[in-house]
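Lecture 7 notes: from sequence to structure.

We start with a single chain of 175 residues. Read the sequence below before looking at the structure.
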Amino acid sequence: MKRTAPLGWYEGFHLLLAVTPQGVITGFGFGSASTHDQQLAATLFALRKTPSPDLMSAGQPASFAYVADKGFAGTKPHALWRTSLRAEVITVPHQTSKQDRWPKALRRWLASLREIIETVNDKLLNTFRLARERPHDITGFQARLAAKVALHNFCIWLNGQLRRVPLAFADLINW
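Now the structure, written as tokens:
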């Protein structure tokens, strides 16, 4: 995502991933770079609850809770997602929240889980060069994103076959 503050315009896409603790991408979606995190999440959760044949990339509902960053925090959206979309979301509360202060150890635990998604994002954007893609239309971006997600998951599978750490791609792929 690229934003120019003085002009207030955005360029690119906002990518949302659903990832297992091992780093396997189980679902993904994207919207314009100006789309708010919570709007993308609600759409992804809705598609996971009631799949659409046109958007199978959303994947299946999670067996457990979703772990997310502060952009997804808020008691109202969490309650809505829980009741209407059957999606339990765990985030560190906003710093302004006086009633939901978490102990430092709990915040660190959540940060360690968030590190997995940050690593997966880095693999897609940098290792597989998604950030450098310049497709001519949205279908080109969809195809390239799907191919990079498939390559990412294949590398995790191959690392498993070779009894290696799942996200250890550095010497697996020699560009």
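Helices lie at 37-49, 75-85, 104-127, 138-161. Keep this in mind for problem set 3.
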